[in-house]
Amino acid sequence: MKRILSTLLTALFVTTPALATDILVEAESFETKGGWAVDQQFMDQMGSPYLIAHGMGVPVADATTTIAVPHEGTYRVFVRTYNWTSPWHKGRGAGAFSLLINGRKLSPTLGDTGTQWMWQDAGKIALKKGKAAIRLKDLTGFDGRCDAIYLTTGDNMPPTDLSALTEMRQRLLRLPSVAPSAGTFDFVVVGGGVAGISAAVTAARLGMRVALVQDRPILGGNNSSEVRVHLGGRIETGKYPRLGGLQKEFGPTEEGNAMPAENYADHKKMEIVQREPNISLFTNYHVNKVQTEGKKIVGVIAQNTLTAQPLLFKAPLFADCTGDATVGYLAGADYKTGREAYDEFEEPLAPKQADKMTMGASVQWYAVPTKKATAFGPFNYGIEFTDESCEPIKKGEWTWETGLNRDQIGDFERIRDYGLMVVYSNWSYLKNQYLDKKDFRNERLGWVAYVAGKRESRRLLGDYVLSEQDLVKHVSHEDASFTTTWSIDLHYPDSINGIHFPDNEFKAISKQKVIYPYGVPYRCLYSRNIDNLFMAGRDISVTHIALGSVRVMRTTGMMGEVVGMAASLCKQHRASPRDIYTHYLSNLKQLMKQGVGGQGLPNNQQYNEGGILSKPPTVQ
């Protein structure tokens, strides 16, 4: 029986210690969010999502909620917020907002001071027992952020330490100490991008009861309307041409990065999952804990990004399609980050010494024409432009890439924020100071991503690690599975951009080595030390160099299909992912020949396929 779990909005819960009354309001739980959006990208670093006022310079509509006040009294009010422009600008920041309680505006402006996430003192207010109305009023439209509001009749400051803050949330929100069960499943797929959709649908069509857990309200990952990267690579090619056919059922038929939202066909991705009776879809759930026994995962715990309520997902098999390898990392799976040294795999494109450089994340954007002249800014928060250094364009897509020399997980909020900074700063310069600013007079920002499109972070290690040598020498493997067709496409900081912004480049270049279509070993799709963990997406077992080829989304979708097929065989034979290679490889090959996509559908995925060599290289 199909079940889709709806996320229920709740306001807050209250506890009353002997000497004080404490009330905690998580901003993401506001009943009406107005123009504020829930941002869950940094939950692992700060413990919860937050609300962001992403108005691209235009203040967004107020967020409102109602709380229960159990006791009359004078309450001190603290707001957990962050002055996000502080890494680049000293002084008042861009993301200012106000807090109103029962229509009274508390005196401090919030969100525009300090240098880190902190509890900002918002003053005191007298409240009567009963209900009270809370309102967040955005003042700038420039990504002000509110994590939580804490009201207390006591004298204690709320904690700043993450573990203490987690304990306070657990206590004041009355979260269960033991996560309730989400149900009974054969297979839990974590991550609802193209890889996760493909893995879940494939396994479901082959008879498995599947839970698909996604931390956003929509599916598609980088191919969703939130990030807007078009699909890349070729389907239905190589030894198993039926692989990839599934994407013809849900892949967008429009090409292009940073295009209007409808181009990314979010509804098709949701519909293909909802039509499968064997899939239970859990949107707005972020996995942040993993339970293990020995070398196996026995359960994952996911936190609802709106209510903070936990759910426990148990199954014999799991697939990490998170991109960041979150499940594998929490389970203790072996992984790598950054670039391997040449000596490790003798890859011609590898550096002599290993380092932490990765491909970066893109904050894409575009402007739209207006009938009248429109104002913007000025936005001056530490990133200075000139006529020589500015980008006189009306659209920024994949090349607007940041964080190549930063930690794509631990530093990711700063990486994303720098992407926002340069978009706003550049646009402000074009509108107000550029010599040819008349060319931008009748233009306004139409869309700027606040969910950044990430390319690389952790890569889980399987029984085989795909390298550049496999791709360029066309090394044949008996367990060849999905076919990668994209060139070895690696990104580096743009040296011209670096002249004006040394060590702070916000643009990237691509260096490509074209390959012949290559069958990637199945052994790259399961963990070498966690016995029941598959992976599909950019977190599979490859080197940094090889990731340049396999990371495009049509290719990751085919990975998902193979993982779904292998999972079905694990259920059938009570086997582990490794057993499929050692004992049931012929069965997997048969399934890959058959495919699971609809028969006779026209190939509507023939854009952005990339160039390929006409024949494989001669092996010496």
Structure characterization notes:
Keywords: 4Fe-4S, Iron, Iron-sulfur, Metal-binding, Oxidoreductase, Signal. This is FAD-dependent oxidoreductase. It is built from 14 helices and 33 strands. It is of the alpha+beta class. Helix 3 (194-205) runs parallel beside helix 12. Residues 1-11 and 13-17 have low confidence and may be disordered.
Model regions low in confidence, pLDDT < 50 over at least 5 residues: 1-11, 13-17
Hey, roughly how much beta strand do the residues contain?
A: 25-35%
Mean pLDDT: 95
Radius of gyration over C-alpha positions, nearest whole angstrom:
25 Å
Summarize this, please?
By secondary structure, the chain is α+β, with helices and mostly antiparallel strands. Helix 12 crosses helix 14.
Give the SSE layout.
Elements: E1 4-5, E2 13-15, E3 22-26, E4 37-39, H1 43-46, E5 50-54, E6 63-69, E7 73-81, E8 97-101, E9 104-105, E10 118-127, E11 130-138, E12 142-152, H2 162-172, E13 181-184, E14 187-190, H3 194-205, E15 210-214, H4 247-250, H5 266-274, E16 279-283, E17 285-293, E18 296-304, E19 310-314, E20 317-320, H6 326-331, E21 335-336, H7 342-345, E22 361-362, E23 365-369, E24 395-396, E25 401-402, H8 412-432, E26 443-448, E27 453-454, E28 459-460, H9 468-473, E29 480-484, E30 488-493, H10 495-500, E31 508-513, E32 518-521, E33 533-535, H11 544-550, H12 553-573, H13 577-582, H14 585-594
Parallel strand pairs: 1-16, 13-19, 14-15, 14-20, 15-16, 20-33
Antiparallel strand pairs: 2-3, 3-12, 4-5, 5-12, 6-11, 7-10, 7-12, 8-9, 8-11, 17-18, 18-19, 21-28, 22-25, 22-27, 23-24, 23-26, 29-32, 30-31
Helix pairs in contact: 3-12, 12-14
